[in-house]
Write a structure and sequence with these properties.
3 domains, mainly alpha, 387 residues
Length: 387
C-alpha cells in the first residue's frame, strides 16, 4: 500500500513520518534478501517474517519500484517455506498474512488454499468483527471465491453481529464490495449489509459511496432507500468525488433513477472536474446517459445541457483526453463516447463530427460488441449527412 504524506500532522510527527518513509525506502531490499535466511522460518520468528512482507512492498513502492511479487523468486521461495507453518499461526498473524499477501497482489493458489483452510478450521472461531472485515478485503481484492471460507465468514456475521450490531460506513461499504466482488453472500446477508449502510448513511464519505456503486454495478435494481440516503449526502461529499468515484457515482445516480437535484449537483461537479477524467471515465459517463436517459438528452433540459457541455469539452481538449488511452482500447472508448453523443441527435458541432467522420473508416476493424456501435453510429452519421 502506498503511504501518503499526512500533511495535517504536527511538525514533529511529520518529521517522524518522513523519517519512517525514508527508512522503508532504503531498507526494503535488505528485508527482501533476508527472506532467504532459513533461520527466520521458525514459530518464534514467523510474526516478524510476515510483517516484513508489508515493509518490502511498502518500501519498494516508496522507491518507485513496481514489482510483480508473484513472479519474484525470493518471494515464491519464501512462501513455499512459509506454507508448512501456516497452520501454527494464531489469529492475528493469519489475518495479517492474508492482508499483506493481498496488498502484494500475490494470487498463488497453493498458499491461499492453505490459508483459507486454516481460516475455516481455526482462525474464524477466534475472530472479532474487524478481523472479518480485514479478511473480506484481503480475499476479495485478489478474487478468492472459495465458497467454504465465504460461508464461514457469513456464518460468523449472522451469528455474532447481525442483525443487532452495526459497522461504520467505511467498514460496511468494504464488506458489501468484498462479497459482491466475488459474487458471494446470501440475499439475507446482503440485506443486512444494506440495512447497516442505510443506518450509517449520515457518515457516508465520498469513498464509501464510490464503493457502494462499484459493488452494485451489475445489479438490475438498486435498493431504493439506500439510493435516497446517498442522494441526501451528495452535497456534503461531492467535492471529494474524483475520477472513478465521480464516474461511478454520477453513472449510478443516472442509471438507477435518482432525484434530479442530486444528479444536477453531480453534473455540475463533473463539469468542474473534467480535467481529472480520462477518456475511459468520460466515455462511461456519456454511455450511461445514452443508454438510460436517451429521451431526456434529446430534449432541452439539464440532461441535454450536460451532454452538450461534455461534447464541447471533449472537442476543445480532444488531444489531451485521447492521450490518456492507447491502442484498441482508445478506439473502443472513443467509439462509445461518440455513439453516446450521437444519441442527442444533434450533429451541429462540425469540428467534432467533421474530424471523426474523416477517420471513421479506421475503426471498421472493431468486432464483437463494438460492431453494433460502429453500425449504429454509421447509420446516424449518414442520416446527418456526415458520411
Amino acid at each position: 500500500m502506498f503511504l501518503r504524506l499526512p500533511y495535517t500532522l504536527p511538525k514533529f510527527q511529520l518529521k517522524r513520518f518522513i523519517t519512517f518513509q525514508s527508512f522503508e525506502a532504503e531498507e526494503w531490499q535488505s528485508k527482501l534478501q533476508s527472506l532467504n535466511n532459513l533461520s527466520y522460518y521458525t514459530d518464534k520468528k514467523l510474526p516478524n517474517l510476515i510483517r516484513n512482507y508489508y515493509h518490502i512492498h511498502a518500501g519498494a513502492r516508496l522507491s518507485g519500484v513496481n514489482t510483480i511479487w508473484s513472479s519474484d523468486k525470493t518471494i515464491i521461495d519464501s512462501l513455499n517455506r512459509l506454507s508448512r507453518y501456516v497452520t501454527k499461526l494464531d489469529k492475528d498473524n493469519t489475518v495479517l498474512l492474508a492482508r499483506n499477501l493481498s496488498l502484494m497482489g500475490i494470487k498463488n493458489h497453493e498458499i491461499w488454499k492453505i490459508i483459507e483452510t486454516h481460516i475455516v478450521k481455526s482462525t474464524i472461531s477466534e475472530c472479532i468483527p474487524n478481523d472479518i472485515i480485514a479478511l473480506v478485503q484481503s480475499l476479495s481484492s485478489i478474487e478468492r471465491d472459495e465458497p467454504k471460507v465465504w460461508t464461514e465468514i457469513e456464518n460468523f456475521l449472522m451469528k455474532n453481529f447481525y442483525p443487532t450490531m452495526r459497522f461504520d460506513s467505511s467498514r460496511c461499504s468494504n464488506l458489501l464490495l468484498g462479497f459482491k466482488t466475488v459474487n458471494q453472500g446470501t440475499p439475507e446477508l446482503i440485506q443486512h449489509i444494506i440495512n447497516n449502510l442505510c443506518d450509517k448513511a449520515f457518515e457516508f464519505k465520498s469513498r464509501d459511496i464510490g464503493k457502494i456503486f462499484k459493488a452494485l454495478t451489475y445489479e438490475e435494481n438498486f435498493p431504493k432507500e439506500l439510493l435516497n440516503k446517498i442522494c441526501q449526502r451528495i452535497s456534503e461529499v461531492k467535492e471529494n468525488l474524483l475520477e472513478y468515484d465521480l464516474q461511478r457515482t454520477l453513472g449510478g445516480l443516472v442509471r438507477y433513477g435518482a432525484n434530479d437535484k442530486a444528479i444536477f449537483e453531480m453534473e455540475e461537479h463533473a463539469l468542474e472536474n473534467m480535467k481529472t477524467l480520462s477518456l475511459y471515465h468520460i466515455s462511461v459517463i456519456a454511455f450511461t446517459y445514452a443508454k438510460y436517459k436517451e429521451k431526456e438528452i434529446q430534449i432541452k433540459g439539464d440532461r441535454q445541457n450536460f451532454m452538450k457541455s461534455m461534447e464541447l469539452y471533449f472537442t476543445k481538449h480532444n488531444a489531451r483526453i485521447l492521450s490518456t488511452t492507447t491502442g484498441i482500447s482508445k478506439d473502443v472508448q472513443e467509439l462509445r463516447l461518440m455513439w453516446a453523443f450521437s444519441k442527442t441527435r444533434d450533429f451541429s458541432n462540425l469540428p467534432l463530427w467533421g474530424n471523426y467522420s474523416k477517420n471513421f473508416q479506421n475503426i471498421q476493424y472493431l468486432s464483437g460488441e463494438s460492431q453494433f456501435y460502429v453500425e449504429d453510429l454509421e447509420i446516424s452519421m449518414k442520416n446527418a449527412g456526415l458520411l
